[in-house]
Amino acid sequence: MMTKKQRFWNVLKILLALFMIFGGVQHFIKSDFYPPFVPTFLPFTLMIIYLSGILEVGLGILLFMNKKYAKFGALGIFCLMILFLPIHIWDIFSSTPAIGSHTVALIRVPFQFLFIAWSWKIYQITSIKNN
After folding, report:
1. Within 10 Å of residue 49's Cβ, how many Cβ atoms?
2. Does residue 130 surpass a pLDDT of 80?
3. Which one of 41, 54, 76, 92 has the fewest beta carbons within 10 angstroms of its own beta carbon?
4. Long-range contacts formed by 125-129: CB under 8 A, 24+ apart
5. Among 24, 39, 35, which Cα is nearest to 89's?
6. Gap between the Cα atoms of 115 and 109, Å rounded
7. Residues 6+ positions from 25 with CB-CB distance below 8 Å
8. What is the mean pLDDT of the chain?
């Protein structure tokens, strides 16, 4: 029987999975939105956009699987959010933010930290042996 706390974190795990899958699919549906987010020194911009979309969808799907795979999915999301953090911080100071405006870029950074903490907590919970 699941406790209220376990049920709460299970719902949050599902929400994180859905968010990641939705975000990953957007890389294919609206691929023209993402090039400003890819650092200009990186080649093959469109390939990076598609690969990051595949990665986001894959990590989201892992959260729906058993604890062993969900743990890797959560850790992968954590690492991905850490990797994307400098891009979002850079966007705040950019003369033309990729997200559209300085206000939105500024609002986005705390959400990035939220996703970092959220995915780390899901990783910790899925790493517990007898939970």
Report:
1. 21
2. no
3. 41
4. 125/9, 125/13, 126/13, 126/67, 126/70, 126/71, 126/74, 127/71
5. 39
6. 10
7. 53, 57
8. 93
